[in-house]
Backbone:
């Protein structure tokens, strides 16, 4: 009578031990992963700020170029391509009166 009870208790203890052992192994792996990521965060943060700074510099250069193009178009060119304006001509009726 004691053997079956002892076998059941042993089986229950084995199931509980396996569950606790696998949870402990999972927790240790999670802790190791956390420590690894924690060490890489400052490097990743620095890299992200470098990328953001690069984008901001490119956007500023493009903005300055666009501003310069708009300013140049607003001022216009110094030389006139149309040439001099025609002088007023006399009509035939004015020359007949003289």
Residues:
């Amino acid at each position: 009578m004691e053997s079956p009870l002892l076998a059941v208790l042993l089986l229950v203890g084995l199931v509980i031990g396996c569950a606790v052992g696998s949870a402990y192994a999972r927790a240790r792996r999670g802790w190791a992963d956390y420590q690894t990521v924690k060490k890489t965060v400052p490097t990743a943060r620095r890299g992200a700020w470098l990328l953001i700074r690069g984008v901001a510099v490119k956007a500023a250069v493009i903005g300055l170029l666009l501003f310069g193009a708009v300013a140049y178009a607003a001022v216009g060119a110094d030389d006139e391509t149309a040439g001099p304006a025609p002088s007023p001509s006399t009509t035939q009726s004015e020359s007949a009166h003289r």
In short: The mean pLDDT is 86. The radius of gyration is 44 Å. The longest helix spans residues 2-75.
